[in-house]
Write a structure and sequence with these properties.
alpha+beta, Immunoglobulin-like, L,D-transpeptidase catalytic domain-like, six-stranded mixed beta sheet, 26 strands, elongated
């Protein structure tokens, strides 16, 4: 019996030890009270982050102030959040378009701030936490010391001939030609290849023309936009407005002038319409006609022609009917009844292309500005220069393209 009791005691202790071991996890579990405290700390951190995310977005606009520099894009920058939209308008409500960057941090206008203009800026923002806000500010650019203006050809809404170029003559010098040319755009209703070319106009002013590679296709609709407002032309001053014009190309009409046979022929869509006897410039000296391609610039009707204005002395001073200007230097097609005996026989004018009054009246009614006069003849004084009216058709396409400031 004694041995039996000795043997039974250890298992009892073992059972107690096992029970204690089994109770240990339970005690440990009961001592896990700090867990809720950890959750509370996390909630507090999230709350702090939320507060940080909802701090107001800082918005910066350049240019700034009441005497801001013109000629630079408007830039809006957001710190601590994103830009959702930006509106920049002038005092007349005209918007300065722009785009928000992919990261939402900046907005930049596509156009530059114009001189002497007050701009209102409205920026819509959103914080990382989702709070939306609106920031409003304004700035005013300093006025331009000098303003450059533009004279256009052709006029808007007109129908012109197949050789008519777009021509811009500037009131003041243009030194920044490449920058100006970047803001000139020609849009056509059909694929038309063309190029700008710079020159000194007959008046002495800077000029840029756009001509297609070949004559326009009849029926082409053309829109020209010169988004120049806010562009610095150099010492000549600033542009303070945009320009636009639209025109349509009429029927294909080409006037073939053969001074050797003393006739001109009007072709319409490649077919002869009428052949007219004429008399061109007198051979020898400065009274000869120009040759090459001249473009009908304007139909001026009855005008006074005085040879002294073109350096020919006192050769004539008279009123002339059905006058059609071909060059700035004074070459016209017109009625010349005083020269009737030479029509179809000899060139005896002071450089113009003369015809009978009846033929001139008919011809005047058929042609339109922009029609090309392709003039040939041995006894001529040279080719019509690009700036002498619209003589750019006398340059090859390669030579014309070289006159672009962006070539």
């Amino acid at each position: 019996m004694h041995r039996t009791r000795v043997r039974a005691h250890p298992p009892i202790r073992t059972a107690v030890a096992v029970a204690a071991a089994l109770l240990a996890p339970l005690v440990a579990a009961c001592s896990a009270d700090p867990a809720p405290a950890t959750a509370d700390a996390g909630t507090a951190a999230a709350g702090t982050a939320a507060k940080n995310d909802d701090r107001p977005v800082t918005v910066k606009v350049t240019p700034t102030g009441r005497k801001a520099a013109a000629g630079e894009p408007v830039k809006v920058t957001a710190t601590g959040g994103r830009l959702t939209s930006v509106t920049v308008t002038d005092a007349k409500g005209r918007a300065l378009a722009g785009q928000v960057a992919a990261d939402g941090r900046t907005w930049t206008s596509g156009r530059k701030a114009a001189p002497g203009t007050a701009y209102a800026v409205t920026a819509e923002t959103r914080t990382p936490g989702g709070t939306a806000a609106t920031t409003r500010t304004s700035f005013t650019t300093v006025p331009a010391a000098e303003v450059n203006k533009v004279d256009w050809r052709p006029g808007t809404g007109t129908a012109v001939g197949v050789a008519q170029p777009v021509s811009l003559v500037f009131d003041r010098p243009v030194k920044n030609r490449a920058e100006v040319e970047k803001h000139l755009k020609v849009t056509t209703s059909n694929p038309t290849e063309g190029s700008w070319g710079w020159m000194r106009d007959w008046s002495g002013k800077d000029r840029v023309d756009w001509r297609p590679r070949t004559y326009w296709k009849s029926g082409t609709k053309v829109t020209v936009n010169a988004d120049l407002n806010g562009t610095d032309s150099g010492p000549g001053g600033w542009f303070v407005r945009d320009y636009t014009t639209t025109f349509t190309i009429g029927a294909q009409q080409i006037v073939k002038v053969d001074l050797d046979s003393h006739h001109l022929t009007l072709l319409r869509d490649g077919k002869p319409v009428r052949r007219i006897p004429v008399s061109g410039g007198t051979p020898g000296g400065d009274r000869r006609s120009w040759h090459g391609t001249a473009v009908l610039m304007a139909k001026e009707g009855t005008i006074n022609m005085n040879s002294e204005t073109v350096g020919l002395g006192n050769a004539y001073d008279k009123m002339v009917d059905y006058s059609m200007r071909l060059t700035w230097s004074g070459m016209y097609a017109h009625a010349a009844p005083w020269n009737a005996r030479y029509f179809g026989n000899a060139n005896q004018s002071s450089g113009c292309i003369g015809m009978s009054s009846a033929d001139a009246a008919w011809f005047y009614g058929q042609v339109r500005p922009g029609d090309p006069f392709e003039i040939t003849g041995k006894e001529t004084k040279g080719v019509v220069a690009p700036a002498n009216g619209f003589g750019q058709w006398n340059l090859s396409w390669e030579d014309w393209r070289r006159l672009s400031a962006l070539s």
